[in-house]
Amino acid sequence: MALRSTERAQFGVTHDSAPTETLLCGFSEFGLAGLTAADYLVKQLDLTQTGHVAAEGLPAITPFSGGTPRNHTRLFSREGLDLTVLVGELFIPVGMAKPFADAVLDWAEEEIAEVAVLSGVPVAHGPEQHQAFYIATEDYRAHRLEDADLPPMGGGFLDGVNGALMQRGLDSELRVAVFATPAHAQTPDVEAALRLLDATERVYDLDVDTEPLESFAEEVRQHYAELAARMQSVEGGRQPEDRMYM
Q1: Rounded Cα–Cα distance for residues 6 and 27 (Å)
Q2: 3-state secondary structure of 159
Q3: Which ranges form a coiled coil (predicted)?
Q4: Where do runs of H (alpha helix) occur along 77-210?
Q5: Is 220 helix (H, G, I), strand (E, B) or coil?
Q6: Neighbour-count burial of 64, counting CB atoms closer than 10 A to its CB (0-12 exposed, 13-18 middle, 19+ buried)
Q7: How many CB atoms lie within 10 A of CB 40?
Q8: Fewest CB atoms within 10 A around its CB: which of 13, 51, 124, 232?
């Protein structure tokens, strides 16, 4: 177990196998687009859990599904695929980002050559900007992006875990990229997750069936359209036809 600590938090990585050369991450961020994309990749690529990250000194969560609990930050891989996916459901505060990133990268220091993060970002945008952009170190661009047909993000700054990982790339030989797309506040922003999955497929030459997620995206769109119509009816002094959920 690799440990990194501050006066307030301590992070430890427990694993059953060594990491692969590439680490792909999705964290609990705005719109949950990156987290949704990473979790979907785990299912579509038939990955199995090979480790997890523990956090002491932070408000803990223990997610569960179907009555079964799970670790909040998990590592997945499988034999024959040079890719480890980190699915991080615990929100990491900005002040804890560097020790968290250092714990993960110190654990993987000897094996991992590159890190890519899938991220939805809260930026003002028009429909023509509904695409994925990259922010990447020079060596990552040369290694992965020459033929990927992805545009760079124009300007801004990275903070939190994304910023800490990118800084590690600037200070070392680690190749680092953040694939970012504009996201909306509704959770999850499935359309943003689909754009991140498309970028991942192109960069890493993966074959991922996104049709189930595309269907879910349509359900999300319909849900919010119906919700907006209900709210407009109430604001206009009219009762909605179906009051079951009011």
Answers
A1: 21
A2: coil
A3: none
A4: 97-107, 138-140, 160-171, 190-204
A5: helix
A6: exposed
A7: 23
A8: 124
